[in-house]
């Protein structure tokens, strides 16, 4: 086999893997921009290409991420409550929104964005790193943190080194064989990390570690993932009176040096709400004016909040392929906007073209592929 050839099987397998991945990641019909729906909890993306062009932050809805920013560099932010889609607004330099069919750029609804829109997360301002062990949790309230995501170590006030030591202690075998297994454990750990490919879920907590056995295991001092349903960060907790709200309170202990050489201890408390907290809090609100005013301010404390989802995609093939191509970042804009059906037909022709190669295990060369594409014109 020469370098510029692949077997038809390889091409078909790639195509199927791509379809599966796209169907899981983009199950909805990307036909409507959510901007006219106003503020609501929804999946959002940041378009880094448009951010670089305009020098301003932006939030992009699911549909616009697929239809208007097809060949752009996008970062998924999971769901946020208080932001509307910026496609076709003055936060973006370039084309008005294709889906809303507007003639010129409109004024953005968003007054502030928070650092997630600059690809920074948590109190430590770090980039999201899916190979890091542990879970990150999103703050339910967001009045102070803009619904930020937090590391376990930062909720506890630990340094990266302290976290490492705590995780080593967690993974230490109970029965000692007299041999130091920590190095082996460490390397096994790393192999698993490099194979981690699962998409984090768009819920309140996602695990960034692929270790299945200990998925539930968090750092000492933190509740395990199964023990809580929602998280309120120390900043949002201190901005309102949450004193009567039940849950698991976790202290973040940090030390700062003073001029006199002493160290000052600071304790900042976060709150983990248990499963069924909505019901418990609405019971409390009946008797407590403080809880009632809290609930009026944050209605999601007593009623489960819906995350907006576009309608399910019934014409799965076309948009699956469109999305799959987006993942490869090589779909021409005209295809994404106007020619989904045409593209889907081309895909079918390609499958037919490849079938005989596949059944005979024959090699498809670049020349074969070039001939096929020129036959389409
Ligand atoms: Zn939009
Ligand atoms: Zn863009
Ligand atoms: Zn758009
Ligand atoms: Zn952090
Ligand atoms: Zn918060």
From TrEMBL:
GO molecular function, one term: ubiquitin protein ligase activity
Keywords: Metal-binding, Zinc, Zinc-finger
Keyword ATP-binding tagged: no
ZnF start-end (UBR-type): 31-102
Residues annotated as domain UBR-type: 31-102
Region (Disordered): 188-222
SMART domains, per database record: ZnF_UBR1
GO CC terms of this entry: cytoplasm
Domain of life: Eukaryota
PANTHER family: E3 UBIQUITIN-PROTEIN LIGASE UBR7, E3 UBIQUITIN-PROTEIN LIGASE UBR7-RELATED
Name this protein carries in UniProt: Protein mlo2
């Amino acid at each position: 086999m020469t370098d510029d050839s692949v077997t038809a099987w390889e091409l078909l397998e790639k195509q199927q893997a791509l379809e599966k991945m796209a169907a899981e990641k983009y199950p909805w019909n990307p036909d409507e921009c959510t901007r006219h729906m106003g503020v609501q909890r929804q999946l959002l993306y940041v378009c880094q290409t448009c951010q670089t062009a305009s020098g301003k932050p932006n939030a992009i809805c699911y549909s616009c991420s697929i239809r208007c920013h097809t060949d752009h560099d996008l970062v998924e932010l999971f769901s946020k409550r208080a932001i509307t889609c910026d496609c076709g607004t003055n936060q973006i330099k370039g084309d008005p929104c294709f889906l809303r069919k507007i003639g010129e750029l409109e004024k953005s609804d968003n007054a502030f964005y928070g650092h997630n829109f600059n690809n920074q997360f948590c109190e430590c301002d770090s980039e999201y790193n899916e190979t890091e062990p542990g879970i990150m949790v999103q703050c339910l309230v967001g009045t102070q943190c803009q619904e930020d995501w937090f590391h376990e170590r930062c909720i506890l006030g630990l340094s990266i080194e302290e976290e490492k030591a705590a995780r080593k202690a967690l993974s230490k075998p109970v029965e000692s064989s007299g041999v130091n297994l920590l190095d082996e454990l460490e390397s096994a750990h790393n192999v698993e990390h490099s194979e981690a490919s699962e998409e984090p879920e768009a819920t309140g907590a996602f695990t960034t570690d692929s270790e299945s056995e200990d998925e539930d295991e968090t750092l000492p001092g933190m509740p395990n993932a199964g023990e809580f349903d929602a998280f309120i960060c120390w900043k949002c907790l201190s901005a309102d009176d949450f004193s009567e709200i039940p849950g698991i309170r976790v202290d973040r202990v940090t030390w700062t040096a003073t001029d006199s050489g002493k160290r000052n201890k600071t304790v900042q408390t976060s709150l983990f709400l248990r499963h069924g907290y909505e019901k418990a809090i609405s019971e409390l609100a009946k008797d407590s004016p403080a809880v009632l005013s809290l609930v009026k301010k944050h209605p999601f404390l007593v009623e489960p909040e819906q995350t907006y989802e576009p309608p399910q995609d019934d014409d799965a093939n076309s948009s699956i392929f469109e999305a799959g191509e987006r993942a490869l970042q090589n779909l021409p804009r005209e295809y994404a906007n106007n020619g989904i059906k045409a593209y889907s037909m081309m895909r079918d022709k390609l499958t037919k073209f490849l079938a005989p190669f596949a059944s005979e295990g024959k090699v498809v060369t670049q020349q074969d592929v070039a001939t096929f594409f020129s036959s389409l014109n």
